[in-house]
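Service request form, structural biology core

Requester: graduate student, group of Dr. S.
Request type: structure prediction, single chain
Budget code: on file
Notes: please return the result as structure tokens.

Sequence provided:
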Amino acid sequence: MSTLTSSVSSGIENPLKQLARFGQSIWLDYIRRSLMTSGDLRKMVEEDGLGGMTSNPSIFEKAMGGAEYADYLAQLRKDKTLDAKGIYEGLAIRDIQDAADVLRPVYDRTKRHDGYVSMEVSPNLAYKTQETIDEALRLWKAVDRPNLMIKIPGTPAGVPAIETALREGVNVNVTLLFSQDMYEEVAWAFIRALEQRAAKGQELAGIAGVASFFVSRIDTAVDALIDERLPEAEPERKKLMESVRSKVAIANAKLAYERYQRIFSGPRWEVLAAKGAQTQRVLWASTSTKNPKLRDVLYIEELIGKDTVNTIPPATYDAFRDHGVPRASLTEDVEGARTVMANLEAAGISIETVTADLVVAGVKQFEDAFAKLLTVTQPQ
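Core staff response, request fulfilled:
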């Protein structure tokens, strides 16, 4: 595990902190109790410009088996009304509340733009709309922090739940987005929710949302398909496949951001912005590099742009602080991104199939992690 060491002490400004100049917020894709109790989280806010945190069942599953949770776990188990999920939520909510409290000054200073902590609804509800709505509202009330975001998967069943939660005043982090079309669906859901609030005369300025667009998993999936199909491919198709290797994730993300720029501009959006609405920023998720042949900070360096967030796991966070090179990369060579996606299709690989499969796999991964987590929090 990364030690999340403090920023470099040389005269060069911390690369993490430099990202703010380009309009990007840096969040940490990690949570555990010791971050708050040791003061490390506060230090990262001060030294690195950390603007938020995200959690998911996999992150909690890795954390909660540790000794730092043992005392409170034993305490919760004394409450015989709590099942394994209730005990997990007791542990998780305490961590989320404490992290939100550390990040509250960021939330206040940025006028509710940053300083958020995300907590996910049960992955077992990914295909259940009403149950997702009910759990989102329940967790929002239980955590009771204005700088909370409830994570809801960007599945077809999740979209109406996202819209309803936002309309009810819940900040939402839409997770497991891989497809540009699905990204666009959740962006319009955000706008519709704000329009419904505006029609009732309700406040818009306090409603925050991000759309978590997953990155590196796309290259992993596409490159695996290339390796599988390359030996039997015709020469022209081989050439096309090799031309897109490890390039699809960034191209896909750049084109999703282009949609963000289009959706959150123009007359329809300007009506909401005039009432204090803030955009649903694109959040880059899954930004650690899975392929050792690629630069370890590739998915940070190539996706830096205005009104975006990058949520980074600890080892990649440390790597970027150490040797990241920030630049305004997100809007570079968008035509090249279009060419990559066209070549992918010409090579016989369907991005729609790849992204649909990744959503199913992502939900399954979180369901499996959640099941393991509940074995840790079983009543005794």
